[in-house]
Design brief:
This is RNA polymerase sigma factor. Keywords: Sigma factor, Transcription, Transcription regulation. Residues 113-161 form the RNA polymerase sigma factor 70 region 4 type domain. The longest helix has 25 residues, at 151-175. The protein has helices at residues 5-16, 20-30, 37-54, 60-81, 102-120, 124-135, 140-147, 151-175. By secondary structure, it is mainly α. It is elongated and about 65 Å long. Helix 5 (102-120) packs across helix 8 (151-175).
């Protein structure tokens, strides 16, 4: 179903435009010469908006950065074919790993963003305990000792955290909103 142009404009302003400065800085830091950052940013916006018009994009920032990265890499590849020697920094990000397609990378990034939002939605104490256990792998006894609470409280808070995160993800999958 076609989306309202006003809704599309609002989605762009709220979900993509706030990341432009960070995107430009990231592109400049990774692709030091030879790519036209303005062109990559504009083409990225266009591709993300086209994708969003076909179906909802649940992690627009991740999708925007993955799209820009791929467009910049294509520019570097084309320049190499023309005999130009463009430099880019490849010390982080898995963009040179071509074994995983862009769709898989974007999907993984969207899932990570949803999980992060789910964890952030937990009450403070529950989030703290859940993060120590599930993210940092700290044993329950150590968490109990560190926070001066009982192991059963730690166990209960982890259960609550898992259940609330599952509910959050379920709601998000049904509605596309948190």
């Amino acid at each position: 179903m076609p989306r309202d142009e006003k809704d599309e404009s609002r989605w762009f302003k709220e979900r993509l435009l706030p990341h432009e400065g960070m995107l430009r800085a990231w592109l400049k830091s990774r692709f030091s010469s030879g790519i036209d950052v303005d062109d990559v940013v504009q083409e990225s916006y266009l591709k993300v908006m086209r994708a969003h018009s076909e179906k909802p994009v649940h992690a627009p920032k991740a999708f925007l950065f993955a799209t820009a990265r791929n467009l910049a890499l294509n520019a570097v590849r084309h320049a190499k074919v023309r005999g130009e020697n463009l430099e880019f920094v490849s010390d982080d990000v898995d963009y040179l790993d071509e074994s995983e397609g862009v769709h898989e990378t974007v999907a993984r990034n969207q899932e990570l963003e949803i999980l992060t939002k789910a964890i952030q939605s937990l009450p403070d104490r529950c989030r703290q305990i859940f993060t120590l256990r599930k993210v940092y792998g700290m044993p329950q006894r150590e968490i109990a000792k560190k926070l001066n609470i009982s192991s059963s409280t730690v166990n209960a808070q982890i259960s609550i955290g898992v259940n609330k995160c599952a509910e959050f993800v379920g709601r998000f999958c049904e509605t596309g909103e948190s």
